[in-house]
Write a structure and sequence with these properties.
The chain is of the alpha/beta class and 351 residues long. It has two domains: 169 residues, P-loop containing nucleotide triphosphate hydrolases (Rossmann fold), CATH 3.40.50; 178 residues, RecF/RecN/SMC, N-terminal domain (Glutathione S-transferase Yfyf (Class Pi), Chain A, domain 2, Up-down Bundle), CATH 1.20.1050. It has ten helices and 15 strands. It has a six-stranded antiparallel sheet with strand order 2-1-4-5-6-7, with helices on one face. A six-stranded mixed sheet has the order 8-12-13-3-14-15, sandwiched between helices.
Length: 351
């Protein structure tokens, strides 16, 4: 699979345009703050359905009411068209002209590597949970469906706790424990493989073999229901559900200690790169098709050896779109198409 055409309209600061990409390495260069990251964000959104924007209207150019992104994908069996329209508090997604849910797009799609990925290690448990849930949702539509049902039931259970409708807790306890237990079981299976891959890639990046991923769980599939019942007094007092997948953490252990607490910025960046490579591999294994690699600001916070490792990964990928303030050294011969960006306007070099 590869992205052949991308059309944007009123998306952040990007000038309305249709861009053509080639297989292999596509490079976009320009000063900071000109729209490189916004372009990768638009590609990632239309291919996967994911956005980290707090409000959808943040994706719309200032002064406009709606934004639009369209991607044409070339596949072995033909081509397909993905579209996303964004307005205030709403979005519409289509695949080949038919409206689809976000779950329908949570497939291989793309993997986005960013300097901010170090926050997966140094940041809050919520960020690590979001990473794990997003990855598992793209590996398994069942996981995505169960997670959605779990979040709905969790919201209703919390509402009952806050309103004092304690008679409803037994119903919510049963539903939540059934859904939560399956989430925990699926997470355990996935993290075993994720940990193996992350350790291998971490070694390849020069970070050593002593890396391990573990789940820090607040309950277990076997004791979920009884644990909920045991926490009833505390939950009534606090007005929220205090255990379950929404409270768990993905612990990252480096050299026998928590990387969240003890890793340096450089170590965190290396671990994050290993996690993204593991994500890429899992998606390729699951769907039989390599994701499009999106590599933002390839040189940020990286020493020359790790920078070269990233560029080698990009060169080996069927398609990679790489941004930076300068063209990547050591990969110029492998670049298939070069763009420059200034003030949101992208131009093909040589035109």
């Amino acid at each position: 699979m590869r992205l052949s055409h991308l059309q944007t309209l009123n998306y952040r600061n990007l000038e309305d345009a249709t861009l053509d990409f080639l297989p292999g390495l596509n490079v976009i260069t320009g000063p900071n703050g000109q729209g490189k990251t916004n372009l990768l964000e638009a590609i990632y959104l239309v291919l996967t359905g994911f956005t980290e924007a707090g409000r959808l209207e943040q994706l719309v150019r200032f002064g406009q009411k709606e934004a639009y992104v369209k991607a044409t994908l070339e596949r072995e069996d033909g081509h397909s068209v993905l579209e996303v329209g964004i307005g205030r508090g709403r979005r519409v997604q289509k695949a080949d002209g038919l409206k689809v849910s976000a779950h329908s797009l949570l497939r291989g799609g793309a993997v986005w590597i960013r300097p901010e990925d170090s926050e997966l290690i140094l940041g809050s448990p919520g960020g690590r949970r979001a990473f794990l849930d997003a990855l598992l949702s793209r590996l398994s539509l069942r996981y995505a469906s169960i997670l959605t049902l779990y979040e709905r039931n969790l919201a209703q259970r919390n509402a009952s706790l806050r309103s004092g409708e304690l008679w409803a807790l037994e119903v919510w306890n049963t539903k939540l424990s059934e859904l939560g237990a399956e989430i925990l079981t699926l997470r355990r299976r996935a993290v075993t493989r994720l940990s193996e891959l992350a350790q291998s890639f971490h070694t390849g990046l020069g970070g050593g073999e002593d890396l391990e991923l573990k789940l820090l769980e607040t309950t277990t599939p076997e004791t979920y229901l009884s644990d909920l019942q045991a926490k009833r007094s505390e939950e009534v007092a606090r007005g929220l559900t205090v255990l379950g997948p929404h409270r768990d953490d993905l612990e990252i252990v480096l050299h026998g200690v928590s990387a969240h607490t003890y890793a340096s910025r450089g170590e965190a960046r290396t671990i994050a790169l290993a996690l993204r490579q593991a994500e890429y591999t899992l998606l390729e294994e699951r769907h039989g098709d390599a994701p499009i690699l999106l590599l933002d600001d390839f040189s940020a916070e990286l020493d020359p050896s790790r920078r070269q490792h990233l560029l080698s990964l990009a060169l080996k990928s069927p398609q990679a779109i790489v941004t930076g303030t300068e063209s990547p050294d050591g990969a110029l011969e492998g670049v298939k198409r070069r763009f420059t960006v200034l003030g949101g306007k992208l131009a093909l070099e040589g035109e």
